[in-house]
Amino acid sequence: MRTYIYVDGFNRYYGALKNTSWRWLDLVALFQNVLQPHHNIVAVKYFTARVSGTPSDPAKPQRQNSYLWALTTHRPEVKLFYGHFLTHTVSMPRAPVTANVQMVAVVKTEEKGSDVNLAAHILNDAWLDRYDCAVVVSNDSDLAEAICLVKRHHPQKRIGLITPGTRSPSRQLSTLVDFRRGIRIGALQNSQLPDPIPGTQLRKPATW
């Protein structure tokens, strides 16, 4: 079965990888471990955004670059698609909220574009008949309409949902898909990229 996998990068990171030692992750190996053998993984489309350094962690961009370069070198079927971060100042109530509400200015950073890009690709690839099965790796209910449209106009195509981490899957997404899977710690442990990447000097960042 021709299978395309659509990964919401930050949903995957915060759901399954943050604060773990399994971030040097081989996505193709992971989905081979999670999915049944009849899935022929043709492509993994990875939707993310470039991170910026912070005063407490200025090396974030270097670690991300190292990982993405290693991943796409070792697994050419992984394709990257970038959104962007939007940072702005907003006014929000101070906690705890009382009758005399005090407002404070906070800096809010949001990742933009990945969900829209993912939705566009899963629809376009269905119309171009690139897959028999699409697997969405996210828990973002904003993707429900795109999945619904694929099922309505291409009822022969199967849609799967992989939920990162231990969170319960989105009810809205769960009602639309043909099957669901989780990502267990054992699958992460058994799906690490080689270090170094064979034939290169690309290595896992020492501070990860």
What does this structure look like?
The protein is an alpha/beta fold. The protein has one domain: Rossmann fold (3-Layer(aba) Sandwich). It is built from 7 helices and 8 strands, in the order βααβαβββαβαβαβα. Helix 4 runs parallel beside helix 5. The protein is globular. 28% of the residues are buried.
Summarize the structure.
The protein is an alpha/beta fold and 208 residues long. The chain has seven helices and eight strands; from the N terminus they run E-H-H-E-H-E-E-E-H-E-H-E-H-E-H.
CATH superfamily: 5'-nuclease
Named CATH topology: Rossmann fold
Gross geometry: globular
Radius of gyration: 19 Å
Tell me the β content.
25-35%
Give the topology, please.
Blueprint (H helix, E strand, L loop, with lengths): L1 E7 H9 L9 H8 L5 E9 L11 H15 L3 E5 L1 E10 L9 E10 L1 H14 L5 E5 L6 H10 L4 E6 L7 H4 L4 E4 L2 H5 L19
Parallel strand pairs: 1-2, 1-6, 2-3, 6-7, 7-8
Antiparallel strand pairs: 4-5
Helix pairs in contact: 4-5
Core attributes:
six-stranded parallel beta sheet, single chain, 7 helices, Rossmann fold
